[in-house]
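Appendix C: a fully annotated inverse folding record. The material below is reproduced so that readers can follow the format used throughout the book. The structure is listed first as tokens, followed by the designed sequence.
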């Protein structure tokens, strides 16, 4: 396959990693490759610029601007909860009093709604919070199970890699022993051939000497 990288390292069976000069040699190879394959352009150029304010609302922008300007936070306005009377110049104005009454009724309805919400929370809040906590515990349990599955898969991959490398190491040692044996036999055969050639040459010389007499 084009571009395929064959890794011939077997860290589970290879020896000599701690020997002097091995680490320095490996780092030198890495430095040499990085010099030859230094990137020539930014690989993120094809992406659009990052929009950091895409999900900001107007309220968020105003708050960020306040923080950037180091201005204090505005105090909570209680004006909407006030029940003012008509101004002194409109004390006899019916419409002004009607507005005050409408405001009072709106405030009363708002407080009644708050009381109703508090009563609902008192009746159902604890149970809703228990259910919410159960959901959180279930989510945490599922995440923990996924984590354990991932760790288990990693261990299985490492075990299979170790097993494969140990099997390959045994095969390599067997092949190396076979190679050493064949080289030794070849050397013995070559040595025997040299000896035979010497004896043959010696015999030829003796026969030539006998014939010459």
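Designed amino acids, in order:
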């Amino acid at each position: 396959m084009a571009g395929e990288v064959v890794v011939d390292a077997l860290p589970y069976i290879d020896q000599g990693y701690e020997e002097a000069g091995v680490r320095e040699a490996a780092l030198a190879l890495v430095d040499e490759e990085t010099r030859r394959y230094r990137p020539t352009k930014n690989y993120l150029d094809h992406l659009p610029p990052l929009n950091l304010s895409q999900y900001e609302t107007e309220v968020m922008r105003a708050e960020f601007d306040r923080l950037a300007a180091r201005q204090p936070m505005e105090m909570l306005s209680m004006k909407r909860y006030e029940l003012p009377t008509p101004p002194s110049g409109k004390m006899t104005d019916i419409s002004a009093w009607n507005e005050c009454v409408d405001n009072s009724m709106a405030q009363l309805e708002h407080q009644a709604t708050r009381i109703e919400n508090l009563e609902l929370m008192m009746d159902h809040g604890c149970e809703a919070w228990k259910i919410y906590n159960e959901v959180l515990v279930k989510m945490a349990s599922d995440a923990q199970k996924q984590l354990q599955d991932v760790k288990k898969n990693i261990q299985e991959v490492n075990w299979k890699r170790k097993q494969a490398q140990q099997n390959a190491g045994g095969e390599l040692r067997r092949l190396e022993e076979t190679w050493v044996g064949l080289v030794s036999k070849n050397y013995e055969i070559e040595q025997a051939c040299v000896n035979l050639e010497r004896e043959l040459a010696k015999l030829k010389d003796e026969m030539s000497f006998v014939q010459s007499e």
